[in-house]
Specification:
- This protein is an alpha+beta fold.
- Strands 1, 2, 3, 4, 5, 6, 7 and 8 form an 8-stranded mixed β-sheet that branches.
- 18% of the residues lie in helices and 31% in strands.
- It starts with 45 loop residues before the first strand and ends in a 6-residue tail after the last strand.
Length: 219
């Protein structure tokens, strides 16, 4: 989970978004900002949702069917995003941007190399935060494995701004340090933390402007 967190320090915790981008290392031998999920292969998400042939409400079907969340799994980054249903074109576009951001953000940490797609999805401050985390990982031989699960919720939205809340679950993540694998510091005690994300469209397309993980709080 690299995120743009409120502080550039904490021995670890859940990287999908950090706080502007993940956890940042507190210096010394502490872990970097942003927990990197790491895993495997294809960069093509395996999305799952309610069947499209579910009966419509007007036909006597379940009126909640249209609100079914969609699960996006990215094995190459070790991250799963369970996106809520959108109620407007703006929300749909903003959520699509966030899902791909979470994928490329976590993949950058997983590969210890900045994704070429990330600068087109996030504000420069978030990209710089990810670069800082990658530098720390490289210098200290740290990688992240396992799986992060992000479950955003739509807190507010307009034509050009969508604000997400929700939770990040880092209980399935691992830290790989000098070939040894263990849970990241702090994750066992506080595996589920709140997130805050702001996605905006200034006219040039949707972009993540804030990505904060509140690693000292619990969902």
């Amino acid at each position: 989970m690299q995120r743009t967190t409120k502080r550039h320090c904490r021995g670890a915790v859940i990287a999908v978004a950090a706080a502007s981008v993940l956890l940042a290392g507190c210096g010394g031998n502490d872990e970097p900002a942003g927990l990197d999920a790491d895993a495997s292969a294809s960069s093509t998400p395996e999305d799952t949702a309610a069947p499209d042939d579910s009966p419509a409400e007007s036909e006597g079907g379940d009126p909640t069917a249209a609100a079914t969340p969609t699960t996006h799994e990215f094995a190459d980054a070790g991250v799963t995003v369970v996106a809520p249903a959108a109620s407007s074109p703006a929300e749909e576009a903003a959520l699509a941007t966030y899902v791909e951001f979470a994928h490329q953000w976590r993949k950058s940490l997983h590969d210890a190399q900045l994704s070429e797609m990330l600068p087109g999805l996030a504000a420069p401050s978030i990209v710089e935060s990810v670069k800082d985390s990658l530098d720390y990982q490289t210098k200290n031989g740290i990688r992240y494995g396992g799986e992060m699960v992000i479950e955003p919720t739509i807190e507010n939205s307009g034509d050009n701004v969508v604000i997400l809340g929700g939770c990040v679950d880092g209980s399935g993540m691992t830290l790989i340090d000098d070939g040894e694998e263990r849970p990241p510091d702090g994750v066992e005690e506080n595996p589920l933390i709140p997130m805050n994300v702001v996605i905006g469209n200034s006219g040039a397309g949707w972009m993540v402007n804030e990505n904060t993980l509140h690693e000292d709080e619990s969902c």
